[in-house]
Amino acid sequence: MDCDFIRNLTKEQKAELLKLLSDEPAKKYEFTGKTIRHYHYTLRQIRRISDGVVGGYIESEENLSQEGNCWVAGSAQVYSDARVYGDARVYGNAWVCGRAQVYGNAQVSGKAQVYGDVQIYGDAQVYDDARVSGTVLVCGNAEVFGRARVYGDVLIHNTGSVSGNIRICGKASSE
Prior knowledge:
Elements lengths: L2 H5 L3 H11 L7 E10 L2 E8 L5 E5 L12 E2 L4 E2 L4 E2 L4 E2 L4 E2 L4 E2 L4 E2 L4 E4 L2 E2 L4 E2 L4 E8 L4 E2 L4 E8 L4 E2 L4 E2 L2 E4 L1
Parallel strand pairs: 3-5, 4-7, 5-8, 6-9, 7-10, 8-11, 9-12, 10-13, 11-14, 12-14, 13-15, 14-16, 15-17, 16-18, 16-19
Antiparallel strand pairs: 1-2, 2-3
């Protein structure tokens, strides 16, 4: 490279050139600087770099993958050891915590709460005021919504649907 070319670059242009030449993958989001407290966790608001859209809140970059189209939007919160990745979305006022994982094309929204060793994946959805906790798998095209409470060792898969004021607990399976 011509040295005069580099000398004539602005500070911003040099920083952009260094980013392009680095081995680090491009980041999808950054922190806005705004924080909130949720219980004893400090959560940081995110902003998508590509278009400046402000998202929800995460505790750290471990909670939301920089890869794929996954996103945390609105006032949603993801913290502790929870992870969102793939093309999954968490939005509205939902929160995901503990060791919960949301991935694939799964969605958690509304005022839903997902915590514990829960896995939500495939095209599954948890929404409204639903609560899912324990060692639960919600997968395929399954839905948990309304005021449903699902906890324990439960599998909800394929086109299974849990809604209303129902409680499913212990060892159970629904298709």
